[in-house]
């Protein structure tokens, strides 16, 4: 039986205004001071216990109801991205080069709406911690909150988060047991020759040639060194070196990313990159060093929690299913799931007016899904923290 969202609908106009204000005033990771202050004030206004400054600019609001001993964590991310908006919307970003191009403004508004609705209905028994996290976009704000004692200070039996998903239509939701988002690794490779005149390449080790050979080899790793039964992506995303047509540069830099769902595959790929770099360095008489950063682990859903997430989604969405495959994008909610069982859900947001993908200059969060997200969090609370 579908949930009656009529009690949520009156919240939507105010949440839309809040979301658009956050959209017009985006803030980058660990600099979400205005956003965090708005969140903290909104949580206090509805009577929650509020703690600020967790993991930098993180905020937690705690709501208790009844005599239940269970506890849940509901998480939203608050940060924007460092690129320019091209939507032309009346509430477009007022900050040059900063843009809510992933919908975290909508996530923040959704979780505030859920807190307000649950504080009014109190149709649960236990404790809910509403976790507003900084710096999801590559800076590991979830990890910072965990290291700052998030779950020691705010115990959670399970944690849940949702993300708007432009690949799915409004009214649909997906999750899965096990890996749902990939780990994210960054590699930077420094190739050093000696530099010299382009007309006399025999006098100097050629850093560009060595870098080119190495890039070719790197692109064989997934197909030749990772088992066919495992999934992985390696992409070289930048090569930089040289300033003139007649000068062989002394140094070239290679930048790239690796995505996978298995730590053993990560080990194999990193070892292969280092071995190939050493081999090319020897054959080209250059010096090559590798920096490899595993900055986000894979996002791994607890199987039972994923079932709960989907059951709750079925109360607000007409099309729900377990996804047969994970996504190769990454998500730092992984740090929270590494500490507590829980699940991450994709909620569809595509319609005729919202076709742009995440991280696109024309992207905008679809406000039609605000009541669906609030309903999902509400359903989780009522199912997992039932009345005494």
Topology:
Layout: H1 12-24, H2 33-45, E1 49-54, E2 58-65, E3 71-77, H3 104-121, E4 126-133, H4 141-147, H5 150-153, E5 158-169, E6 172-175, E7 178-181, E8 184-192, E9 196-197, H6 207-218, H7 221-225, E10 232-240, E11 247-248, E12 251-260, H8 263-284, E13 287-296, E14 299-301, H9 303-314, E15 319-322, H10 334-337, E16 342-350, H11 370-384
Parallel strand pairs: 3-4, 3-5, 5-16, 6-15
Antiparallel strand pairs: 1-2, 2-4, 6-16, 7-14, 8-12, 8-13, 9-11, 10-12
Describe this structure as you would to a colleague.
Helices cover 32% and strands 28% of the residues. With 388 residues, it is an alpha/beta fold. The strands form four sheets. It has an eight-stranded mixed sheet with strand order 1-2-4-3-5-16-6-15, with helices on both faces. Helix 3 crosses helix 11 (370-384) and helix 9 packs across helix 11. It is elongated and about 80 Å long.
Give a nutshell description of this structure.
With 388 residues, the chain is an alpha/beta fold.
CATH class of the largest domain: Alpha Beta
Q: What fraction of residues sit in β-strands?
A: 25-35%
Write the CATH architecture name of the largest domain. Answer: 3-Layer(aba) Sandwich
CATH homologous superfamily (4th level) name of the largest domain: Zn peptidases
What is the β-strand count?
Answer: 16
Taking all residues together, what is the mean pLDDT? 96
Q: What would you report as the Rg, rounded to the nearest angstrom? A: 24 Å
Structural class, by secondary structure, is: alpha/beta
Shape assignment: elongated
This entry's quaternary arrangement is single chain
What is the name of the CATH topology of the largest domain? Aminopeptidase
Q: Helix count, per DSSP? A: 11
Strand order within the widest beta sheet: 1-2-4-3-5-16-6-15
Order of helices and strands: HHEEEHEHHEEEEEHHEEEHEEHEHEH
- Major sheet: 8 strands, mixed
**Ends distance:** 22 Å
Number of separate structural domains: 2
Helical amount = 25-40%
Q: Any low-confidence stretches, pLDDT <50, length ≥5?
A: none
């Amino acid at each position: 039986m579908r949930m009656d969202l009529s009690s949520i609908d009156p919240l939507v106009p105010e949440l839309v205004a809040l979301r658009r204000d956050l959209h017009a005033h985006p803030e980058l990771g660990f600099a979400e001071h205005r956003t965090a202050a708005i969140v903290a004030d909104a949580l206090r206004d509805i009577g929650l216990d509020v703690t600020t400054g967790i993991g930098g600019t993180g905020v937690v609001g705690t709501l208790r109801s009844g005599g239940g001993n269970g506890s849940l964590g509901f998480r939203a991310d608050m940060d924007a991205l460092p690129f320019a908006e091209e939507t032309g919307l009346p509430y477009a970003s007022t900050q040059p080069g900063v843009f809510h191009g992933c919908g975290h403004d909508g996530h923040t508004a959704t979780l505030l709406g859920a807190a307000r609705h649950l504080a009014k209905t109190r149709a649960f028994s236990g404790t809910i911690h509403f976790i507003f996290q900084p710096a999801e976009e590559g800076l590991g704000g979830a990890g910072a909150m965990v290291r700052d004692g998030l779950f020691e200070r705010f115990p959670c039996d399970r944690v849940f988060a949702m993300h708007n998903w432009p690949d799915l239509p409004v009214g649909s939701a997906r999750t899965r047991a096990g890996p749902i988002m990939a780990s994210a690794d960054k590699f930077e490779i420094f190739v050093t020759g000696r530099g010299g005149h382009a007309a006399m390449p025999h006098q100097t080790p050629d850093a560009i040639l060595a870098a080119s050979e190495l890039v070719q080899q790197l692109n064989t790793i997934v197909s030749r060194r990772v088992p066919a039964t495992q999934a992985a992506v390696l992409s070289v995303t930048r090569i930089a070196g040289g300033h003139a047509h007649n000068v062989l540069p002394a140094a070239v830099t290679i930048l790239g990313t690796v995505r996978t769902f298995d730590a053993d595959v990560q080990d194999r790929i990193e070892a292969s990159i280092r071995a190939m770099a050493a081999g090319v360095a020897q054959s080209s008489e250059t010096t090559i060093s590798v920096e490899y950063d595993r900055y986000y682990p894979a996002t791994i859903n607890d199987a039972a929690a994923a079932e709960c997430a989907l059951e709750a989604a079925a109360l607000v969405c007409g099309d729900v299913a377990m996804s047969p495959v994970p996504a190769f994008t990454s998500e730092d909610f992984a740090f929270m799931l590494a500490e507590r069982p829980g699940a991450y859900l994709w909620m569809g947001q595509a319609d005729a007016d919202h076709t742009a993908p995440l991280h696109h200059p024309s992207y905008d969060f679809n406000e039609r899904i605000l009541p669906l997200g609030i309903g999902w969090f509400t359903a989780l609370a009522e199912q997992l923290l039932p009345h005494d």
